Amino acid sequence: MMIQAIPVFKEAHILRKNMLEALSDYAYLSGKLLHKGYGDGILSGCELTTTEDRIILNEGALLYQGEMFFIKEPAEVSYFPTNTTTILKLYISEPKEEHSLLYQEMELILEEEKGEKGGIELCRFKLQEGARLRYAYQDFFDRDTEFDTLNVIHAPYAVKGGSAISPEVTKAFAREMLAIKGLPGEDVQFCLQLLGRERPADNGMLAAYIGWREGKELKKQGNGAIFSGLARILKRSGSGEGWEDDSAGRKKWKMMVE
């Protein structure tokens, strides 16, 4: 027989050892079981905003080496112009036990593009002298603007079996695609599924769509390759190129998205 025990706390009741053990098990194991087999990355929240001289990481949750970590309040890091690509990463220290608690420190660090391995990338940017770093985008393509723009394309989001591109990026793609008149039904279906997802879309699924849309396999499935593929499709769809020319050569395509 399998039993789940959740402690019930009431005023004036004695706090028992088995209640604390049950609470510890429930809190510790719930995250592990829900995200078993997931890769490192953002689980929810963790939006980035900027001020005149600071990047702000807002509240959220991340997964790192199978453990959940919570950003309970906004954290800041100062930025400055370098005219070279700078990457913002979150580093998590090895666990250290003290006073019956297990501590792990989280630190925001700015480093060069070819910096230390490890950590979780949150964004990258190339800031010019006298410019301010912006985080609001004019359209889908603007996310990959080279200078003075917060680029979150490469930030990993935790999914089963690895990591994926931000759902904010894929939803932005879907919204702009759906605004195009005469969009083929298969594309409409796929975009509606992207908008309806609660979890990030797996990069493998996105690569399959891009490969089908372009008529050739997308071999690289990193976030950068996925964004570039979606950008090509959006640009081509917006101009109306290729819908009638290549539709006959494409196989009937259907994909169910969880």
Describe the structure using short key phrases.
single chain, 258 residues, 2 domains, three-stranded antiparallel beta sheet, 6 helices
How many domains? The number is 2
- The low-confidence runs, each spanning 5 or more residues with pLDDT under 50, are 242-254
The residue fraction in helices comes out at 25-40%
What is the count of β-strands?
A: 13
The helix/strand order is HEEEEEEEEEEEEEHHHHH
Number of helices: 6
**What's the N-to-C terminus distance?**
31 Å
Structural class: alpha+beta
Largest sheet: 3 strands, antiparallel
Strand content: 15-25%
Silhouette: globular
Radius of gyration equals 22 Å
- Which strand order does the major sheet show? 1-4-5
Overall pLDDT level = 88
Q: Can you give a write-up of this model?
A:
- Strand 8 (96-98) and strand 9 (101-103) form a beta hairpin.
- 29% of the residues lie in helices and 22% in strands.
- Helix 2 (167-178) runs antiparallel to helix 3.
- It contains six helices and 13 strands.
- It folds into two domains: 41-162, no CATH class; 166-247, no CATH class.
- It is globular and about 70 Å long.
- Mean pLDDT is 88; it is low at 242-254.
- The protein has a three-stranded antiparallel sheet with strand order 1-4-5, with no helix packed on it.
- It is of the alpha+beta class and 258 residues long.
- It starts with 16 loop residues before the first helix and ends in an 11-residue tail after the last helix.
